[in-house]
Amino acid sequence: MTPLQVCETILEGRYLGAKIRTFFVGLPDEEKHYWVSSLYALLMPPAKRQKLAAYFTPPHLADYVLDLMERAGIEIGSARFLDPASGGAAFLVPLARRIIKKAKMKRETPLEIIKRIESTLHGIEIEPDLAALSEILIKDLLKEELAKTKKPLMLSIARADTLKYAPSKIQFDAIVGNPPYGRVFRPQKNILENFKGILSDSYVNLYALFVEQSIRWVKPGGKICLIIPTSFIGGPYFAALRKRILKTCIVESLDLIDKRSDVFVDVVQDVCVLLLHKKGQIEFKKRPTCSVIKIDGTFEFLGEIDLPIGATERVWGLPNGRHDDSLFQEGLETLDDYGYLTKTGYFVWNREKDRYRLGKKPYKNEVPLYWAHNVRANRLCLPLERQMENSLLGFVEFGKNRTAVIKSDAILLQRTSNRRQNRRIVAGIIRQTKVVGGNGFVSENHTILILPNPNKEQLVSITALCRLLNTAEVDARFRRLSGSVSLSTKALRKLPLPSAMDVKKLFKSKESDEASSKLAYLNTISEARLQKMRPKHKSRQFKKVRNNVSRV
């Protein structure tokens, strides 16, 4: 049986085994339809599922999106809705359910209910069987009405590629959906041309293209609500997309999704719910908000989004419930202002294994290789193959071209953080005097290096800078402008940091180092206030505070 035939069999009540029967019997319709869609995705060949990004929205999240749209003024049942990636009808089915409920309260006839659904719900789906599944699920929801009218359901679900589709001239009042995610390697020329206004450095991600199509197709004054990765808020490859959104739309809200590893079946992704109001009618001034959506459907308000004034490529700043100040206020500085360069690690181990060797000492043309797992916060990095005692060191062979070899002290950061880590920024130090062989080093491509700029004076010592980057406050600030677990060199270059003068003052002694991670953001703290927190004698109370800060 095909995945579609399996799903049809289950919806008809003809279960395929005791376990399947036990699972589906008694489930509410909204859960049954979601699990049927998810079962379809899991029955697909993995390569095909990954290509189509067939991961469906759970009911609590779809309901949250529709509640959001209704609160924003969209009338379900009269407004024309489009799901540009309708998949397993994750939004079309709950939309139809709400239309049926409202219509029955108004005592509309079954025929009127069917016509209302046919005229207001629209979808586009590239995979023919998935489009058929959407129709089957909505028919299952309307089985009573269809039985009474004996009228065939004429749903508007186009079997087409959304990125190439040309809808009718009538634009939509609202667009909702959970578009596919994933980078497009070697994109076709027509894609690059058609979407050049939202592409940065010719980097193409599917969800960015769906955002652009939604902006094109929704009416002025209409609403767009999409579930998309949070990477666009700070990612350098989405700079043009951010500018396009701010130019054409008003951002009403951007809500983060909690428990990210369990949101979509068989996929882990950091995602958010983005609500936009397309410009063109009467404009309104509203501060864009941000909340965290819980797994039970409730949400916790965090604060307001820090957006740039006007349509620019600047990153967006998320609130975290503790900081409401602007990320880009006056008086803050960057790594470049401090006199430091940022670059990604050079060596790609799995592509050049022949140049890599394990040993205790380097040969004449070799330098040690530092790995991401060698990084420990505020500690000296050692180029161990594994993080254990008596582990061998890794060395990389170089010929005459040694421009990639680093011959200065450096800060080494993990480029991709683990979701279980408390900190996204983890920084250690490499000292040239401690580098084995004394001829420099390289780091692998899952690391980021912060190096002294030879053409500038370093206004902050490398030790103080490393400690600053490892503070909870800097980590929290970076999270506000980074929607991904991966660190970006461009994002680090733009990260607003306290003035060099404040950093030197606050890290001039060990005790001030320990205290600073617990203080409010460093540029807002004066030296006089710090002195009040540091009594001349080490009282029991002060020791307790210091120990608590150290644990943080």
Structure description:
- 39% of the residues are buried.
- The model is unreliable at 260-268 and 509-552 (pLDDT under 50).
- The chain has helices spanning 3-11, 18-24, 29-43, 46-52, 59-71, 92-105, 110-120, 128-141, 143-149, 189-194, 206-217, 239-248, 335-338, 462-469, 472-481, 489-494, 500-506, 510-516, 527-533, 540-551; strands at residues 81-83, 121-125, 156-159, 172-177, 218-229, 249-257, 271-278, 289-293, 299-304, 340-344, 356-359, 366-370, 393-397, 410-414, 427-430, 442-443, 447-452.
- The strands form three sheets. A nine-stranded mixed beta sheet has the order 3-2-1-4-5-7-6-8-9.
- It is an alpha/beta fold and 552 residues long.
- Among the domains are: 58-74 and 163-324, Rossmann fold (3-Layer(aba) Sandwich); 335-496, Adenine-n6-DNA-methyltransferase TaqI, Chain A, domain 2 (Alpha-Beta Complex), CATH 3.90.220.
- The protein contains 20 helices and 17 strands.
- Helix 1 packs parallel to helix 8 and helix 3 (29-43) packs antiparallel against helix 8.
